[in-house]
Amino acid sequence: MDLFRSEEMVLVQLIMPAESAHDTITYLAELSLLQFRDLNPGKSPFQRTYANQVKRYAEMSRKLRFFHDQVAKAGKLAYRPIMENVTNLDELDHKLGDLESELLEINANNDKLQSSQSELMELKLVLQNGATLFHSTRHLENGQQLQSVLDDPSLEESVSRPLLLEQEMQTEPTKHGRLGFITGVVPKVKALSFERILFRATRGNMYLKQAPIDELVIDPATGEKVEKIVFVVFFSGSRARTKITKICEAFGANRYPFPEEPNRLWQMKSEVDERLSELQSTLDAGIYHRNNVLNNIGYSLEKWTLMVKKEKAVYHTLNMLSVDVTRKCLVAEAWCPVSAKPKIQDALQRAAYDSNSQVNTIFQILYTKESPPTFFETNKFTSAFQEIVDAYGVGRYQEANPGCFTIITFPFLFAVMFGDWGHGIALLLAALYLIINEKKFGSKQLGDIMNMAYGGRYVILLMAIFSIYTGFIYNEFFSVPFEIFGKSAYRCRDPSSSIASCMDASTAGLIKYSSTPYPFGVDPVWHGSRSELPFLNSMKMKMSILLGIAQMNLGIVLSYFNAKFFHSAIDIWYQFIPQLLFLNALFGYLSFLIILKWCQGSKPDLYHVMIYMFLSPIDDLGENQLFWGQRPVQIVLVLLALVAVPWMLLPKPLTLRKQHLQKARGQAYGVLDGSDTEDLDKGKEYEVEGEEFEFSEVLVHQMIHTIEFVLGAVSNTASYLRLWALSLAHAQLSAVFYDRVLLFAWEYSNPVIKLVGLFVFAACTVGVLLIMETLSAFLHALRLHWVEFQNKFYLGDGYKFHPFSFNTLSQDYEDDT
Q1: Of 228, 345, 518, 809, which is the most exposed, with the fewest CB atoms less than 10 Å away?
Q2: What are the CA-CA distances from residue 794 to residues 5, 14, 402, 704, 786 (Å)?
Q3: DSSP state of 790
Q4: Which residues form a coiled coil (predicted)?
């Protein structure tokens, strides 16, 4: 497994007999080593050879999705199937059709029974509440007062009068009859509108009584539980009955009969209860039968789904192949790794043997100028780092892959900004928890955030380990320093006082009494001293510059390996060398001065040195001189930087133009050696290539690239100062939470206040430092890799290798379920 360059790929052609094509594609899908090309791009899906088979398996997939929805709706889990002999797909198709018909019939019967039960329940509620409503109207002298009101001639005339001032045909005089009524139930949300419309439609010639239902009622039409009320409408006349009936239908109010005689009412209640009991028994038997059917389906549902998905994928791939004119052979073209050729040939032989084919599949290599796909063989540890690189862009075929360097540089730059070995231990525990339980989390469907954390568990592991390392260098444990690696080299001015009780630490300062420095990392006495910020700022800022220049130089060196691998001498002479000279003549020299200053312990102003290196290169350096011969060295470096700019700009476009002209002349003379047809073809190729090369475009492109590198050398170096800024911010936030929250609460003797302070400190540490600061440092490290590092050598304009594989179908099924 080589992560530095992608796997060597080759385009192969497979000529397979039609009788073994299905088994051949199936065996190759199990290998997951071939990416097939579509040889029928101009054909629609319905014009392809195996369109009917794809349509058939799409219908089977629809039935399986229906079964899955029914199993999930019933609350039954699809059991993992026991390994059995593979069912014939024709039998499976027939079986799925029978099961679907049976399940649809069961569901239809259950729906009818549920609807009947809901109607009977509403009728029962009407019978129960209607008696109360009728009893409440008895105070109107058994309905005589209501009858006299409704029989008033003036009101009966108003009922028959139209809503608009239009004339209606004259009707016979109203014949006073017996008072009528309609009972039923209506949704509670529509009750107020229902009453208002009834009043307006009848001109107030009705009497409405309502009784709320305490429990939710299942609506017979929708099957949903809704709030409803029982109503009784009293009216007079057939016209009013017609109007009220239409209004009930419009509002979805279900009407039910209500007997006036008490004996008939009691008998009707008994009949309803008896029918409800019978319906419930029938429903229970139907649900039991339905659950048995769903259990049988759920037992093999996953197995059937994977079988159908595999067959559908196989025929979809077969549709990408071209059919021979004799329809006896299928021709396929696919990309595969060179190292996988023995496995592929073995699979082809097994497929021909198992399908009883008399002719083996022909396997041959095709030579093409097309760029192959990019394929890296990764494992669960390296895949997350490779995904970080691929998120920027998939690498061009066999160019240097930054992924192998990202495994170390990414968590290290993160740790530079997150340096605290206490926080690092917390991250380490979280990463170890994810790694130890990776089988458990891998089989579950996680949320977006948890899935992202689980996928990057090994990235978090290395980030935590490097954070512990940089935390030891910074000597910070939740912002508290410890003398882990030895004693401090400083002491208080008063020998009788300890460092912890020394009052001079934040005023006059400590004195150095030992020539041996602190063995590893920052001396703990710097924390809390009056020179803490100036010292740490200077150290972290210069360290950020050193790390940035080192990583950018690594990127430029990788561009050399790319140019050497692709045999591009132009890029070596006119891109790699001038870029390396320009960057190191300025910022490489600055890095050298930083290290020299640390080694000498001198006090020259490096800002002054770098500025006057350009403004006054020949002036005397004075006390800013760090080594003998510094002034002539700086003059040479400035000249090298100035020469490197036109070196990057002009030679490469001119050389490309010269090569193009030589190639064009060579093609022109080569025409005499071929036939007329070959001459015509070569002439056309020459015209096409001549049109593709434009010197002005190449020059402008190179100018943009040169300006981008020159300005980027400055801006990218400054961008690495984010390492210093975020490290400082992280340390100060940690110190604020420790001093202003935890120590402030610990000054009180009340244990409740101490517990509250500890809880607030823990919440701030987790919420701000372990979550927000982790995300912030992660994003900044990501930017440094994508922009400052990868743009020096990484093109990222390739396309990923997607082999035809059954493994992805299994993962898709897990995601769906």
Answers
A1: 345
A2: 12, 34, 8, 17, 9
A3: G
A4: 89-116
The pLDDT value recorded for residue 449 is 87
Contact present, 458 and 380 (Cβ < 8 Å): yes
177: phi then psi, degrees, rounded to nearest 5: -120, -165
pLDDT at 266: 87
Give the whole-angstrom CA distance, residue 380 versus residue 377. 10
Return d(Cα 651, Cα 573) in angstroms, integer. 9
pLDDT digits (tens, 9 = 90+) for 152-187: 444 444 444 444 333 333 333 444 446 788 889 999
DSSP state of 480: B
Fill in the amino acid letter for 760: V
**Cβ-contact 509, 531 below 8 angstroms:** yes
Phi (first) and psi of residue 54, to 5 degrees: -65, -40
pLDDT at 813: 45
Residues of the chain with pLDDT under 70: 1, 76-87, 135-178, 325, 493-510, 667-691, 810-817
Q: Using one digit for the tens of pLDDT, what is the confidence trace for 400-418?
A: 999 999 999 999 999 999 9
Within 10 angstroms of residue 318's Cβ, the number of other Cβ atoms is 23
- Radius of gyration of the chain measured on its C-alpha atoms: 42
Spatial contact of 208 and 201, defined as CB atoms under 8 Å apart: no
User: How far are the Cα atoms of 444, 477, 603, 746, 774 from residue 738, in angstroms, in the given order?
Assistant: 38, 10, 34, 11, 18
Query: 94 exposed, middle or buried (CB, 10 Å; 0-12, 13-18, 19+)?
Result: exposed
Type of residue at 282? T
Q: How far is CA 749 from CA 186, 587, 738, 755, in A?
A: 66, 56, 18, 11
Check if the beta carbon of residue 596 is closer than 8 Å to that of residue 563.
no
Note whether 23 and 392 are within 8 A (CB).
Answer: no
> What span, in angstroms and rounded, lies between the C-alpha atoms of 647 and 607?
28
